[in-house]
Write a structure and sequence with these properties.
Order of helices and strands of chain A: EEEEEEEEEEEE
Structural class of chain A: mainly beta
Low-confidence stretches of chain A: none
Shape of chain B: globular
Number of helices of chain B: 0
Distance between the termini of chain B: 37 Å
Helix content of chain A: under 10%
Largest sheet of chain A: 6 strands, mixed
Shape of chain A: globular
Mean pLDDT of chain B: 88
Oligomer: heterodimer
Structural class of chain B: mainly beta
Radius of gyration of chain B: 13 Å
Largest sheet of chain B: 7 strands, mixed
């Protein structure tokens, strides 16, 4: 069965630090990839998604992610985080039959 | 805007009670999903439905059932609630166009089973 792993359970950064959150999945076929964010007390929101084409995807709020097929990875990056980026981040994979989320990474940004 | 609504934001039930969680979407989406979200475990898929009267088990269907009598409504049923079903329940709907699927989430129902 498809599985999605996220490298870190909790990441703590200072403002202006660079961010990279790891995501790996297990399925070897064609996939659609997503990153979602959930701010404290709010709904899940879609940050960005990859379906095809340029493997470097730009999303909202300055986030981007790179799909590396050979590594089964879809890491999320932001060059300079802000305190308002404090949230939980979920990677998700859709292989056409199942939509599977990773366990989430909690990001805390210190002012 | 797409709207996915859930019948309750907060519910408190007793062990053994039958619990209904309702989800309604207003965009004629064919696909609907129920997830639960728990700290450290992320989102886990309980059931999904790709059409009226169709249902498919997700990753953790045990202890749950679903009903999709109308396209816009997808109900999650806990036949006999247990304390380990205390969780945040999220409904979602999605559509596929050009091979792309876009998913929209409701606000969630936080269920406490005493």
């Amino acid at each position: 069965a498809q599985s999605v792993s996220q490298h870190n359970h909790h990441v703590i950064l200072s403002e202006a630090a660079s961010l990279e959150l790891g995501c790996n999945y297990s399925y070897g076929g064609t996939v659609n990839l997503f990153w979602y964010v959930q701010y404290p007390g709010q709904h899940l929101q879609l940050l960005l998604k990859y379906f095809s084409g340029d493997p470097l995807v730009k999303g909202i709020k300055g986030f981007e992610a790179e799909f590396i097929k050979s590594k089964f990875s879809f890491n999320l990056r932001k060059p300079s985080v802000q305190w308002s980026d404090t949230a939980e981040y979920f990677c998700a994979v859709n292989d056409g039959q199942n939509f599977v989320f990773g366990p989430g990474t909690r990001l805390s940004v210190l002012p | 805007d797409v709207k996915v609504t859930q019948s309750s934001r907060y519910l408190v039930k007793r062990t053994g009670e039958k619990v209904f969680l309702e989800c309604v979407q207003d965009m004629d989406h064919e696909n609907m999903f129920w997830y639960r979200q728990d700290p450290g475990l992320g989102l886990r898929l309980i059931y999904f439905s790709y059409d009226v009267k169709m249902k498919e088990k997700g990753d953790i269907p045990e202890g749950y059932s679903v009903s999709r009598e109308k396209k816009e409504r997808f109900s999650l049923i806990l036949e006999s609630a247990s304390t380990n079903q205390t969780s945040m329940y999220l409904c979602a709907s999605s559509f596929v166009t050009g091979g792309r699927e876009t998913q929209y989430f409701g606000p969630g129902t936080r269920l406490l089973v005493l």
